[in-house]
Amino acid sequence: MIPEIGHFALILALCVAVVQGSLPIYGAAVGNAALMSVAKPAARGQFILVLLAFCCLGYAFAVKDFSVLYVAATSNSHLPLHYRLAAIWGAHEGSLLLWTFILTVWMVAVTFFSEHLPEAMRARILGVMGLVSLGFLLFMLTVSNPFERLIPAAADGRDLNPLLQDPGMVMHPPMLYMGYVGFSVAFAFAIAALLGGNLDAAWARWSRPWTTAAWCFLTVGIALGSGWAYYELGWGGWWFWDPVENASFMPWLAGTALMHSLAVTDKRGGFKVWTVLLAILAFSLSLVGTFLVRSGVLTSVHAFATDPKRGLFILVFLAIVIGGSLVLYAWRAPRVGLGGGFDMVSREAMLLGNNVLLVAALGSVFLGTLYPLFLDAMGLGKISVGPPYFDTVFVPLMTPAIFLMGIGPLAQWKKASLPDLARRLRWAFGASVVTALLLPFVLGKWTPLLSLGLLLASWVVTTAAVNVWERVSRLVDTSVMSALVTLPRAYWGMVVAHCGIAVFIVGVTMVKGFEVEQDLRMNVGETSTIGGYTFRFDGVQNIKGPNYTAARGMFHVSQGGHDVTDMFPEKRHYPVQNQAMTEAAIDTGLLRDLYVSLGEPLPGGAWSVRLYHKPFIDWIWGGCLIMALGGVLAMTDRRYRLAGRREESLVSDLPRPVGPEVS
Amino acid sequence: MRRWLLVLLLIPCLVSAEEAKPLAENPQAEARLKTLALELRCLVCQNQTLADSTAPLAEDLRREVREMIAKNMSDQEIRDFLVQRYGDFVLYRPPLKATTTFLWLGPFLLLVVGGVTLALALRRRAKTVPDPTLSAEDHQAVAQMLSEGIKRS
Predict the structure, then answer these.
(1) Which of A276-280, A625-629, B136-140 has the lowest mean pLDDT?
(2) Which residue from A444, A442, A456, A363 is spatially nearest to A405, judged by alpha carbons?
(3) Beta partners for residue A551, in sequence order
(4) B103: nearest CA partner in chain A
(5) Residue A654 has pLDDT above 60, yes or no
(6) Which of B70, B90, B110 is the last residue of a domain?
(7) Which of A40, A71, A80, A411 has the fewest CB atoms inside 10 Å of its own CB, making it the most exposed?
(8) Are B69 and B119 within one domain?
(9) A645: pLDDT strictly greater than 60
């Protein structure tokens, strides 16, 4: 009964989405306030309905209702409750429900934080989001219904893929989807502005915090996914350039470009046409990401869905959304004004230059991901595109972007002077070069990549320091501390996010340069020393988990005779899916991770063991979190909070153009 | 007495606290295998390098590569052999040939086109966007608006 209620809620939500996607947009076009006012209650109603459906599916998982096909396919009676609930998004159907649910969450957020928007703008935004949601609901109800019954019911479920039975599964997909779907808000703002013909600086200011919010979620989501792969896959990598990872990275790159382009549009009114295009691009890539992962077109670590009918539906949906918005763009964008003028050397030009680099880098990820599929589909042979390709193509494109990242924030808007910039940045440059050349020797090894990485990281940090110092010393009549506090939060957000990039680069560089790995045959009692740490193998014991059995290795780690820690890597066996899993043991530290992965038993009682010493690896994820923190600072800037109130008071002074406002 | 027993029991542990041996018999060849295998695909895995994979077939292929290394074949010879047998699919660094030209050059082409477009657009803008010259009246109007704004908030 409960699953049928969920199914019915989805059908009702579809009906609401039809209303939300049509009446408000039409109302905005003809200036009918009554029709426009439908948007808000419709969005909230849709949220309640999809939430209800979501809870119904959760309930079916909680009570182990194996008469629901999806529940039987992705869980098992021995699976612990938290993983049964995470299994809601463990496969195709439930992920789509999560996608739609998060879309309605963003919709409701828009209804709450859009008091300052003109009624027509809000109606169009919610209308566009309603249309996107319509597509996803239709998709679920036609070809991938999570509530489909299995009659007669299965005695027990087929269990969740053991790879997914991990705390990462609880956090990573919702975070990632919050980011993916969050770009739908920026997209809806852009389409609404195109529809209304009011593509102006106000539009850019309104969509900035939303874009930043989505970007923060996406950043954290990707970092969580990377961390999860690091400890779960058991071979110690943190990024594999897997198509599924790329699918989440492409919207991130587009979103990063969008945030910077929005800054130009907001502050200087320029390049609106480009900004709108990026907003469309970011969301389109989110949809492409969903398509890539969910259609079964890829066969990779994450892809667990295969059904051509679904692939076709998503493809048509993609064509309508992307094609439709591009047609609208081609029709409306040329009428948009140019905004303020600026020079070839100016902060605007540098931000746009960075945009070009980011988009080219995005192009390399896009090609690397889709080219093999394209060749295969054309019958031109099968190729593999892996890390060597991206190291060769992506890295050279990002390097100048990071270099520009140091200069841009110091350049003046409108017109900057290169000699002046060179003078202001000479110390930062000198310090960075010295660091890049000397530090590797201090650390005991020199490679060109090591130097390059350290150069970029210290360049970002030193230029940020110069920037802050200049800002502070300009405020002559205040003390340094109070000057630091006076600087706007959006500015600090930028500085913090850029430093996050530097921390990330340090992590990547150090781990690439100084990682030590050893494949060993270890007998009980034998030791091995890497990176100054001595690992002693104390044998293996058999243990029993809730839905698996495992061999648990015991390792004692010491450094210079002092005990450091004990580590317990596991080799698990999940009987339901007859799958073996390597659970690495990791000792995390600020400056290094110790990583032990248990291999196979060898003849003679020994085990094959893989030991790693990974310096600075946690800086990779730390850097991502710092970037996201920067985003949070930027979007909570006083300016956005005040802007709402001020516009409201301005509007209340003016005579209303259309009928009474209903809110 | 009991203490001595404990010490006696511990002796075998101390004795066997030896340095563990590397899994491979020939660490030098193994290092070469590792570098090679990082750029080779495990053919039966979803998307894993030959170096990372634990699949039995990957183990077989690694053994074959080890044998080729033992036969003193160069890295390129080994790669050629594998491509001959399994096709370009086995290489994670796709070779540059007619069908992959766009894959390798596309991003840089995009960069050049983007850069040129940006430069042209900037130059065109510089001509079309008039530099606003403010009259004394404008300045006065701005000053007035600003003071009003201050009053309002």
Answers:
(1) B136-140
(2) A456
(3) A542, A571
(4) A367
(5) no
(6) B90
(7) A80
(8) no
(9) no
Nearest to A289 by CA among A228, A356, A207, A366: A366
Give yes or no: residues B83 and B101 share one domain.
Answer: no
Q: Are residues B61 and B100 in the same domain?
A: no
The answer on B34 and B78 residing in a single domain is: yes
Domain C-terminal end among A391, A410, A429: A410
Is the domain of B85 the same as that of B113?
no
Residues 6+ away with beta carbon under 8 Å from A635 = A208, A209, A212, A213, A216, A493
Is B143 a member of any domain? no
CA angle A153, A157, A159 (to 5 degrees): 165
Facing residue for B118 by CB, picked from A356, A371, A386: A356
Q: Do B16 and A353 touch (CB under 8 A)?
A: no
Where residue B123 falls among pLDDT bands split at 50, 70, 90? confident
Strand partners, A557: A535, A565
Residues 6+ apart with CB under 8 A from A156: A66, A76, A77, A576
Task: Write down the pLDDT at residue A605.
Answer: 84
The verdict on whether omega for the bond into residue B95 sits within 30 degrees of 0, i.e. cis, is no
Q: Which of B22, B24, B92 sits opposite A387 (nearest CB)?
A: B92
Residue range(s) defining the domain that contains residue B116: 96-127
Helix (H) or strand (E) holding A608: strand A607-615
Phi, psi of B96 (to 5 degrees): -80, 110
Are residues A172 and A318 part of one domain? yes
Q: Within this chain, do residues A317 and A192 fall inside the same structural domain, yes or no?
A: yes
Residue where the block lists tokens 């969008």: A258
pLDDT at A379: 79
Counted domains in chain A: 4
The whole-chain average pLDDT of chain A stands at 88
User: Is the domain of A264 the same as that of A291?
Assistant: yes
Tell me B41's DSSP state.
B
Element (H, E) at A194: helix A167-196
- Mean pLDDT for B78-94 is 91
* Amino acid letter, residue A230: Y
Across the A:B interface, residue pairs with CB atoms under 8 Å apart total: 156
pLDDT tens for each residue of A561-620:
899 999 999 999 988 888 888 889 999 999 999 999 998 888 888 998 999 999 999 999
pLDDT number for residue A374: 85
Q: Domain count for chain B, please give it.
A: 2
The whole-angstrom separation of Cα A523 and Cα A526 is 6
A125 or A335: whose pLDDT is higher?
A125
Asked if residue B51 is part of any domain, the answer here is yes
* Residue tagged 């828009």 (tokens): A110
Answer whether residue A42 shows pLDDT above 60: yes
CB A505 within 8 A of CB A647: no
| Record: contact B17-A343, CB cut-off 8 A | no
Q: Which residues of B touch A369 (CB under 8 A)?
A: none
Query: Tell me, what's the pLDDT at B119?
Result: 87
Neighbours of B122 (CB within 10 A): 21
What is the span of the domain harbouring residue A52?
1-165
* A160 and A238 part of one domain: no
Q: Which residues contact A411 (CB under 8 A, 6 or more apart)?
A: A345, A346, A347, A350, A421
B44 in a structural domain? yes
Q: What ipTM was estimated for this complex?
A: 0.82
Q: For residue A421, which phi and psi values (nearest 5 degrees)?
A: -60, -45
What is the rounded distance in angstroms from the CA atom of residue A508 to the CA atom of residue A524? 34
**Residues, chain A, total?**
663
Residue A493 tokens, joined = 């957000």
Q: Does B92 sit within 8 Å of A389, measured CB to CB?
A: yes
Chain B within 8 Å of A528 (Cβ-Cβ)? yes
Considering only the beta carbons, identify the residue of A339, A393, A537 that sits closest to B107: A393
- The SS3 of residue A59 is helix
Q: How far apart are the first and last CA of chain B?
A: 88
Q: What's the CA gap between A531 and A39, in Å, rounded?
A: 61
pLDDT 10s digits, A502-536 = 999 999 999 999 999 888 899 999 999 998 999 99
